[in-house]
């Protein structure tokens, strides 16, 4: 079985590549920056918006596509045109080109951003889509495209609405949820961290509040990999 993974150099993509290669699947791993993609996959480096790169990745045809490549939330808000080119135009072209070579399984990584902000109290498959961000709107558009191609019998499509990934590697990612990942890295290293709070009524300005150090957080709220011996009494809270 030949499986194309776009965005294969990302945090989720690398893990999927690793698992599929271990299963003995033939994996085509596509990303603009191929560094870190596990061994065993055929790597195609380049921009999803480049027709020649997509042709090289699809080759003579694939049995399945796992589409992870995206311009993420914060970056999409900063550059809506770039988001449209990657998250809408390039993906639609990929759908067309994949179906021209067969009827592949197409797994689309969407986002809970399609529900808008704030999230509804309860979310299920029948919850209406009401995106507020450019990113969420583009994701919602392409959910409809996947449904359209599936209804027409061109693909076997499924959309997965992913939440924020909090355990991603350190460094800029363009994702609005990245501050949570950075917080966990700071906790693991025993460093102080800070996060922006909502505007206060008194000043009307965004203020920075220091996050509690790891010694002040209940161990059950800290990922197991980040836990350290806890003092009997926190010196900061004493």
Your description of this structure?
The protein is α/β, with parallel strands linked by helices and 238 residues long. Helices cover 32% and strands 16% of the residues. It contains 6 helices and 8 strands. It has a 6-stranded parallel β-sheet, sandwiched between helices. Helix 1 links the parallel strand 1 and strand 2. The longest helix has 20 residues. The relative contact order is 0.10. The C terminus is likely disordered.
Main features:
single chain, 238 residues, alpha/beta, two-stranded antiparallel sheet, 6 helices, 8 strands
- What is the averaged pLDDT score? 81
**Tell me, what's the shape?**
globular
Largest sheet: 6 strands, parallel
Query: Largest beta sheet: what is the strand line-up?
Result: 3-2-1-4-5-6
Strand content: 15-25%
Furnish the topology, listing elements before pairings.
Elements: E1 2-6, H1 11-22, E2 26-31, E3 42-45, H2 51-58, E4 64-67, H3 73-78, H4 80-99, E5 105-111, H5 134-151, E6 156-162, H6 178-189, E7 194-196, E8 208-210
Helix pairs in contact: 2-4, 4-5
Brief characterization of the structure:
The chain has helices at 11-22, 51-58, 73-78, 80-99, 134-151, 178-189, and strands at residues 2-6, 26-31, 42-45, 64-67, 105-111, 156-162, 194-196, 208-210. The protein is α/β, with parallel strands linked by helices and 238 residues long.
């Amino acid at each position: 079985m030949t499986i194309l993974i776009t965005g294969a150099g990302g945090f989720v993509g690398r893990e999927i590549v690793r698992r599929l290669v271990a299963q003995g699947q033939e994996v085509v791993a596509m990303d603009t920056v191929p560094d870190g993609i596990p061994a065993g996959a055929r790597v195609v480096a380049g921009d999803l918006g480049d027709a020649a790169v997509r042709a090289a990745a699809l080759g003579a045809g694939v049995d399945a596509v796992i589409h992870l490549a995206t311009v993420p939330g914060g970056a999409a808000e900063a550059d809506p045109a770039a988001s449209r080119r990657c998250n809408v135009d390039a993906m639609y072209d990929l759908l067309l080109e994949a179906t021209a070579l067969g009827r592949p399984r197409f797994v689309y990584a969407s986002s809970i951003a399609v529900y808008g902000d704030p999230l509804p109290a309860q979310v299920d498959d029948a919850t209406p889509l009401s995106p507020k961000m450019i990113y969420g709107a583009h994701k919602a558009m392409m959910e409809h495209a996947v449904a359209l191609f599936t209804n027409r019998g061109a693909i076997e499509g499924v959309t997965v609405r992913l939440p924020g990934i909090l355990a991603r590697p350190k460094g800029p990612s363009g994702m609005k949820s990245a501050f949570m990942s950075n917080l966990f890295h700071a906790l693991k290293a025993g460093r102080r961290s800070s996060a922006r709070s909502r505007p206060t009524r008194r000043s009307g300005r965004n203020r920075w509040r220091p996050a509690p150090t790891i010694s002040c957080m209940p161990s059950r709220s800290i990922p197991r990999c980040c836990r350290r011996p806890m003092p009997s009494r926190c010196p900061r809270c004493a």
